[in-house]
Amino acid sequence: MDAPVALIVALVTLLMIVALATAARRLLGVRFGVIRTFLAALLAFVLAGPLLSPILGSLNGTGVAGDPGIGPVWVLFLVAMCVVLIPMVILVLAEALVPPGSIPGPLEFFRSLRGRISRARRYSQITRIAVRHGLGPYLRGRGERLTDRPGTVRLARSLREALDEAGVTFVKLGQVLSTRRDLLPAEFIDELGLLQDQVAPVPWEQIEPVLAAEFGGPVDKVFAAFDTEPLAAASIAQAYTARLHTGESVVVKVRRPGIGPTVDRDLDIVRRLAGTLESRTRWGRSLGVGDLAEGFAIAIREELDFRVEAVNMAAVAATNGGGVTYPAPIGPMCTERVLVMQRLVGGPVTRASAEQGPRLARDLLDCLLRQILVEGVFHADPHPGNLMLLDDGGLGLLDFGSVGRLDASIRSALQRFLLAMNRQDPLGVTDALLEVVPRPEEIDEAALERALGQFMAKNLGPGMNSVQMFTDLFKIVSAYGLSIPPEVAAVFRALATLEGTLVRLSPGFDLIGEARAFAGRHLSEKLDGGTLKEAATQELAALIPMLRRLPRRVERIASSAEHGRLGLNVRLLADDRDRRFVTGLLHQVLLTVLGATAGLMAVLLLGTDGGPRVSGALDLSLFELIGYNLLVICAILVLRVLVLIFRRPRDAEPHRPMV
């Protein structure tokens, strides 16, 4: 075969496959992916010859070419429709057996393959780090259970060094664990606490190019003086002291170079693990670990952008510090990778004396509760590494990369929750809790109220453990299927972190008693005469327009009732989503009825003898011809209904690329 002829044949074949794919998709009335539709049409084109060759052979052997009747034309039309039915059947079977999105498309496949390779490298790297630090047996679940303190200290040190070497995400994990005294022994808490401010620094030779790139010039031109020895090294950045040309002392916070790709891979691993837990465990679904992981990822990404931290710092500084000092950012010098801020003079908060500890802990608790309950902008990571003991004896709060925000309704519900806890009112605590978390469709409020009453009776007595209180509260939330929103989860995470910090500041600090005292003081403020007058004025201003319209509306209703014209107008299916649902359901019922009717009529006609002949060569009667056409119509309608049935369960799923 010549090349031009072969090219023409290939082009005609391609056009026939495309036409076949288009016809199948239009007749089914459902959108399919281009690749899936093309493959179905290609397979149908390959199968059409073997499946229809007996029919075509019978046509050739009957001498229909010379038959002037309409029969051969209809038979050829039926053959063409049978060819179209083949890709339709293939698409419906694929919809049932291989739903769209279950197999990634080519581009998505190569991207996912590249992601798998990257994750595999990261898994391998983390495994090598763990094995190098002696944690290999514990990864396989075969580590020995240590009972002696020296062995536990060595294991805790190995874990801390491994987390430090693994990078930003795992250092953050260690920082969170260092505040959870309810989960880990004291030896682990002490070791992991070193991750708060004792992270291996990056050499100055790697930091200087970052500063030069961000400021557009050498460091000695931008600053009057710059100390190249880091003041502190953290998981995401390290800080240096410097002096501006104005003479002001500042702290320059520089993001560690090259941590972006590693954080992306680690966050991808965290998301996938959270998705697995949420899909396979009941407690994962009840706690919403997917949303928690997403919130954790958003928080870390915000911490990587120091422009966000500068905005957060200004927002928190605008609140009432309550005895806690915040540094102010130098706005024009803050970029994505560099943050310049006012320098607070002091040292680590762990140097606080036994006499200072209770006062500092009380100031810190009062400050954070005020941020959460009153201002709505709060520091979400108050671990000891983010605190300073200032030279004047006060507290300084640092690192505003992780800041939570609460709207007025959530703040009001949290206020009522704390005030009801202070009064030990189970009904008030239940109502406030169900306003804080999304209300499930089915919940036994009476049982929840009794559980919260027992919780308060157990944990609000004198000398009770705040760590156990948080644990018991989370157990209740999980047991009743309550899902905690990310912004509220940030509050609980901040309070859990704060609890560990308060214990380090003042061993034996009564978190529960001090929180109840804060609630009492806040209640007094809310009941202040001026506050009540202002609240009443605001409510009255909002009610006045409605009160002015109320008499006219009451008079209109009374007049209609008096003259027998009072009626009730109810619009059924007013929501467009309800109309679409009912319309789709009616379409399916109608297609099913029409398909069943067409099939039944086809069977009756094919079983009826006699009738006018439409083709003598084919020995085909009019009844048979109509019956075969009705069978094709029945098949098309049934396939349309089946494809809608198979696709319906995925209507609520997120959009995924179709293949």
Can you describe this structure?
The chain has 24 helices and 13 strands. A hairpin with a 4-residue loop joins strand 9 (387-390) and strand 10. It has helices at 3-28, 34-60, 71-97, 106-132, 136-139, 149-166, 168-177, 186-193, 204-215, 219-222, 260-280, 282-287, 289-304, 306-317, 356-375, 408-423, 426-436, 445-459, 466-479, 486-505, 511-526, 529-562, 576-606, 622-647, and strands spanning 225-226, 232-233, 237-243, 249-255, 324-325, 338-342, 346-348, 377-379, 387-390, 395-397, 403-405, 613-615, 620-621. It starts with a helix and ends in a 12-residue tail after the last helix. It folds into 4 domains: 20-98 and 579-659, no CATH class; 106-196, no CATH class; 311-527, no CATH class; 529-558, no CATH class. By secondary structure, the protein is α+β, with helices and mostly antiparallel strands. The strands form 4 sheets. Strands 1, 2, 3, 4 and 6 form a 5-stranded antiparallel β-sheet that branches. A 4-stranded mixed β-sheet has the order 5-10-9-7. It has a two-stranded antiparallel sheet with strand order 8-11. This is Ubiquinone biosynthesis protein UbiB. The chain crosses the membrane at residues 6-24, 33-53, 73-94, 581-606, 626-646. Pfam families: ABC1. Belongs to the protein kinase superfamily. ADCK protein kinase family. Residues 195-429 form the ABC1 atypical kinase-like domain.
